[in-house]
Structure to design on (160 residues):
């Protein structure tokens, strides 16, 4: 397992895609984003246009463990933060289940995640809950990962 984190627009997705392509000529990209509005649809389209055509695609915003069992070769999950957001209302997130599914795979699994805990304390209770859960999730995934990278300004720093 490899975890790649950083803030918004830090270059983590680009770094993760380059790493996946170095590890495998035909990796699987597991997309967790949902086009809930026009702006998000445009973001998804931009990511699709930026992605190399060598990637096989699985779109799975909720049941990530199922997508991991279907993925062949190196799997790149982009991103854990959106997956958590998609599951927050139903409280149907199970970090351990995702980690177990990744560890059962024969090939590498690369997870992309956002660091959301370095900013101010959010005013809204749901936002604070999301920030706290994101931090807990990132700690669990970092602990279980063989490698961890953090990106700032497009520069990756290996921290584990």
């Amino acid at each position: 397992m490899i975890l790649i984190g950083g803030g918004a627009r830090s270059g983590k997705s680009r770094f993760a895609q380059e790493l996946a392509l170095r590890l495998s000529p035909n990796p699987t990209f597991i997309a967790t984003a949902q086009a809930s509005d026009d702006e998000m649809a445009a973001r998804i389209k931009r990511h699709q246009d930026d992605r190399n055509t060598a990637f096989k695609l699985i779109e799975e915003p909720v049941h990530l463990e199922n997508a991991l069992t279907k993925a062949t070769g190196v799997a790149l999950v982009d991103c854990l933060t959106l997956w958590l957001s998609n599951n927050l209302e139903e409280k149907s997130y199970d970090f351990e289940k995702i980690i177990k599914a990744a560890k059962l795979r024969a090939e590498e699994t690369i997870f992309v995640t956002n660091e959301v805990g370095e900013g101010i304390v959010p005013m809204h209770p749901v936002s604070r809950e999301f920030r706290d859960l994101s931090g807990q999730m990132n700690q669990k995934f970092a602990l279980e990962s063989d490698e961890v990278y953090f990106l700032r300004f497009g520069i990756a720093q290996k921290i584990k």
